[in-house]
């Protein structure tokens, strides 16, 4: 296990608001939350960060584990003097949030898990992707990744989204991306679900090929207090493709705790 690191982060919104942590997906930066940020900032102290190996965060040598990624959030909250927070995570960010909530229930108030899974098989596919990226760089996978992030109709209508997404993936350091792939390959959070007490909203993209709705249903059924929202006409980055649905759902779920 690696030591926790000082991740690149930003704190915006209401200084006196409840804290919400946004945890990004594989191959992205904190910019993946841009479509949701303005509304969140009106009511919350928003803590965004780049997962280790991504964006402006350090790139320690891998492999990483989900525990490493959870430890990074613990360290970030400690540095910010935050005793508990809502946590919103998508894909890898959701996996990190689940592990954090299972290990440190005192730190997690409410949780929104988007387009994620407690277990993604086959693990060999993730190890193969890590090997490819280490050999050829993240540009070797950027087109295939973005094709899973959004529906085909959305990409056709918004070529600028396709280009920006591919550039984001290609800019991700190969070691960071590959090491996070290895974290997913080794991960099995299914035994953790029953111990998660934070009220949890699981959000699925109806057309998500990476983590289809049954993965989110498993989470909603497995945690103590979970419910499922399936968002039509959206793929893996449901928050970016359908912010008009996802942002109000996040606000409603987190607002119930205030």
Would you write up a description of this structure?
The longest helix is centred in the N-terminal third of the chain and has 15 residues, at 66-80. Helix 1 (34-43) packs parallel to helix 11. The protein has a seven-stranded mixed β-sheet, sandwiched between helices. Strand 2, helix 1 and strand 3 (45-49) form a beta-alpha-beta unit. It has a domain at 9-120 and 188-255: Rossmann fold (3-Layer(aba) Sandwich). By secondary structure, it is an alpha/beta fold. It is globular. It contains eleven helices and seven strands.
Compact overview of the structure:
This protein has helices at 34-43, 66-80, 92-103, 123-136, 142-149, 152-157, 159-171, 174-185, 213-222, 238-241, 243-255; strands at 9-13, 19-23, 45-49, 85-90, 108-114, 200-205, 226-231. It has 258 residues and is of the alpha/beta class. The mean pLDDT is 96.
């Amino acid at each position: 296990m690696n030591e926790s690191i000082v991740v690149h982060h930003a704190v915006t919104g209401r200084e006196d608001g409840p804290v919400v942590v946004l945890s990004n997906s594989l191959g992205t930066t904190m910019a993946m939350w841009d479509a949701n940020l303005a509304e969140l900032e009106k009511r919350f102290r928003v803590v965004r960060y780049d997962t280790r190996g991504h964006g402006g965060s350090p790139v320690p040598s891998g492999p990483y584990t989900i525990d490493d990624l959870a430890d990074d959030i613990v360290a970030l909250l400690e540095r910010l003097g935050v005793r508990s927070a809502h946590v919103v995570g998508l894909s890898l960010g959701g996996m990190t949030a689940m592990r954090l909530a299972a290990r440190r229930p005192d730190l997690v108030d409410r949780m929104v898990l988007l387009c994620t899974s407690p277990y993604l098989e086959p693990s060999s596919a993730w190890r193969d992707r890590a090997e490819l990226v280490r050999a050829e760089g993240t540009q070797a996978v950027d087109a295939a990744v973005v094709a899973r992030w959004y529906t085909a109709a959305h990409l056709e209508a918004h070529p600028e989204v396709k280009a920006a997404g591919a550039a984001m993936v290609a800019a991700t350091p190969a070691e960071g991306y590959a090491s996070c792939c290895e974290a997913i390959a080794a991960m099995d959070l299914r035994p953790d679900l029953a111990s998660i007490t934070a009220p949890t909203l699981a959000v699925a993209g109806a057309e998500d090929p990476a983590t289809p709705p049954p993965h989110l249903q498993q989470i909603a059924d497995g945690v103590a207090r979970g419910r499922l929202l399936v968002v039509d006409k959206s793929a893996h980055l449901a928050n970016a493709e359908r912010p008009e649905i996802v942002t109000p759902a996040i606000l409603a779920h987190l607002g119930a705790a205030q």
